[in-house]
Amino acid sequence: MTERLIPEFDAGRRAAFGRTPMTYAHRLLDTGLFGDDRLAAQLERHPAELFDINIFHYDADDQALLQTGTKGDRPGAALLEAVKAGRVWIQMRRIQDHWPELGAAMKRVFAELSEQVPGFRPVQVTGQLIPSAPQAKVPFHADPPGVTLFHLRGEKRIWIYPVDEAHMPSRSMENIVMEQQTEDLPYRREMDAAAEVFDLTPGMAVAWPLHAPHRIENLGSFNVSLSCDYQTWTSRITNGAHFANGVLRRWGAPVLPADRAPMAARAALWGASTALRRMGLVKTRLESYERAFELGDAPPPPDKGLIAPLAMR
Ligand SMILES: [Fe+2]
């Protein structure tokens, strides 16, 4: 297989990748990896501790709560049937380490992206393979690393919002990088007016700027996507600056929002953050949550094991 996995970008896409929300084409489906049999086999063999199994519930204000599940030990085909049947959303983390053929394809994809996008030099890439049910929705959230998502099966709609104080308050990203709970990600339905909306079909990929909040709804079909997180020096420094700002804010010091501060100021804050992290001033509040169900069981009643969602990662 010598053909490119990412067809050549035009000048517009070269300039837009990672800077503005955009879609592009990919040829990961040519690898033949994503049929039911291969997916079922991976569901069965992927380590249980690298599974996130979630069902989201939405209240009248569209604020989300989630229940988490465990993989259990049903055979792969039964696990796949369970995903196809309901509202569950699953991610298999660190897929590149546990599915070597897919890991190799990811390497090629990122080499080809680096070739075409000026200055794009990710220092770390990790993949989540995400099978999700026809009725699954992922609530409004933001991810600390850069993300690009390769859509593989089914249809879904993604809303991508601006990275500004109205949609992604600095205080929220500070809490996310400090691993504090972020139940206050302030989604309101009227924000959709500011979103860019894309309908994704197999063979499409989507990218957005660092920390752009987004939400996703499956459009009635079983979906499979590969979400790739990447760190660049810019994302590392910006997240470090958010961490330092979060500490400064607790101390009552004035802060300049890290996503909008000049790079030199971000770099200084990042330097401070490495020392602050070593000092252990912030205790993570991410605990191991109660698992409310096992994949393949009937869904639990929506008042059992509910927690506010954290940033997806
Ligand atoms: Fe995300």
CATH architecture of the largest domain: Sandwich
Bound molecules: fe (ii) ion
Class from secondary-structure proportions? alpha+beta
Q: For this structure, what is the CATH homologous superfamily of the largest domain?
A: Cupin
Domain JmjC: 88-247
Organism: Brevundimonas viscosa
Protein name: JmjC domain-containing protein
InterPro entries: JmjC_dom
Q: Which SSEs are present, and which pair or pack?
A:
Blueprint: H1 11-16, E1 22-25, H2 36-45, E2 51-58, E3 64-70, H3 76-85, E4 89-92, H4 95-98, H5 100-116, E5 124-132, E6 137-141, E7 146-153, E8 156-160, H6 170-177, E9 196-200, E10 204-207, E11 214-218, E12 223-231, H7 233-250, H8 263-279, E13 291-294
Parallel strand pairs: 3-13
Antiparallel strand pairs: 1-10, 2-3, 2-4, 4-5, 5-12, 6-11, 7-10, 7-12, 8-9, 8-11
Helix pairs in contact: 2-3, 6-7, 7-8
What is the compact description of this entry?
The chain has 2 domains: 11-231, Jelly Rolls, CATH 2.60.120; 232-281, no CATH class.
Structure keywords:
four-stranded antiparallel β-sheet, 2 domains, 313 residues, alpha+beta, nine-stranded mixed β-sheet, 8 helices, 13 strands, binds fe (ii) ion, JmjC domain-containing protein, Jelly Rolls, JmjC_dom
